[in-house]
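Re: Re: ligand-bound prediction request (bumping)

Still looking for help on this. To restate: I need the protein modeled with zinc ion bound, output as structure tokens. Inputs repeated here so nobody has to scroll up.
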Amino acid sequence: MPLYVYEAMEPERSCEKCRRGFEIPQKLSEPKLDHCPYCKSPVIRVIQAPGLTHSQTDLHYRAKRAGFHTLKKVDNGTFEKLY
Ligand SMILES: [Zn+2]
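Reply:
Sorry for the wait, this slipped through. Here it is.
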């Protein structure tokens, strides 16, 4: 089963799990989450390159957070689904 990574859209209103990003196994046929299962705040699915080690993943999260506004603009389809 593929492992998907989700991250808080509004980190200041989110729990620690989604603020940092969490992984969840989902079937391809399952709809993607739009809310954190822990705190119910909106989350966005992070497209993750395969084969990253854990520490590289961590860096990836930080880099993505820094460029979050760019991501929102580029990944418009995903962003719109959250509303
Ligand atoms: Zn949460």
